[in-house]
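Researcher: Can you fold this with zinc ion in place?
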Amino acid sequence: MILKIEKIGLSLEAELLNKLLEIGKTHYQKEFGGFLIGYYSEDNRHLHITDTVLPKRYQASKYSFERSTEGIENEFTEFYTGTPIKIYIGEWHTHPNNSPIPSATDISAINTIINNKNTSIANPVLLIIGYSKNTVDFGFYVWFENNLYKYD
Amino acid sequence: MDKNKHLDSVISTHQITKEETLFDKYVKKKNEVKEALEDKYESDIYSPFNSGSYAKNTAINTKFDFDLVSPFKRNAFGCSGTLKEMYEDVYDFLYEKYKDVAEVKKQKVSIGLEFYADSDGDVIKIDVVPGRELSQDQYKENENLNLYVYYKYGNIDAGSERIKTNVKAQINNIKTRATDEKDSIRKIIRLLKVWKNTKYNYPTKSFFLELITIKAFDNKTITGSIWEKLETVLEYIRDNVTKDSFTLKDPGNSSNDLADTLTSYEKQQLSDDMKNMLDRIRDNDENLKTYFPENSKFKKEESKTNQYGTNSGMPVPPPKLNFG
Ligand SMILES: [Zn+2]
């Protein structure tokens, strides 16, 4: 289920968004993606996405993308021990020549995150970058109150 | 009832513990030292990174163990500069900078900074590990570093040039494991303190519960969900605390045995309490709530739905994930 969400905020620099798009485009026509890093405001109402970690190991095709954390586990700890403390908050991937709407696989990925005992993140974020030669469209989603919501 | 969900809520609704404040102090200090090194060595150094393997037996009480690996470029100390020169240069720099506020010591592959106790009595220790790439720009490729191994024979300094292949990879495993484990230990300790606070004037001290939890993690394989981990620790206490051979050494003072702070009767009581608790939770999951209540004051605030949920500890992404 996809709904609009207005109660909680999310922000990131256009620079980061552009960077993700550029990285994604270098893998055209295959999908590509990575991990999103950020932190919450003190009142927990706002999420700032600040960085990405890219997978070293992954498999991709036009319609699928599988990433692994192998070899990059350390990077999450680095962010966690920095100032401010930054954490893994979700995932991003591209949909080349397609709209940024979560596929069934994407939704089950979110469920995997939620149900993973070690993940311990209450509201994972999913960013999908749908792009083609001349267009780009970003879709931000967050798992909240047992539903996947779309940010405005 | 979802036992794990309840326990997570118990942990997040009870207040931040001293350990977390201390952990933040370490992080701050570590970043200070890192910045000092970057200011001093500028373009001769890659970004120092933290490879802290938090020493197990001291993870909770006052001592985290932070290693700060400082990767130097091949020609940072001239093209014929030796590893010894690197080590000495970093030592001299740190000594000059910190001699008034810390003990600065030469150690095997690192330079130890032990800051004098702050106003809370906390002692922060950071080990700086200088390393140098094997050839120009090679660090960026594979992160291999040469370390200088320092020895001391009597009063005579001696050293050797040693190749350590990929410090980063070597420490990764230990570190991730140590971080995860420390996080689990912290959660279990918090739960045990919540349980202790449900009782009036319970003879077992908090420090005792901290140490026995760490000892359980040292002696048993503790894995699974938060409930499974808690269960294993409760069983460990139940089965071990009354043994004659049972000791609980204070890491700050090894001649201090915390096991002696309880009488045999009190140890028996602690063991029986663990047994009863385990039996009753096995009878009915709901009983978990009696032993480990949520902090209701906090809970009300949290039920506002215009906030992100609280995450406890460092979230770890699932190792493999598919997108379509
Ligand atoms: Zn997708």
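Model: Folded with zinc ion in place. The mean pLDDT of chain A is 87.
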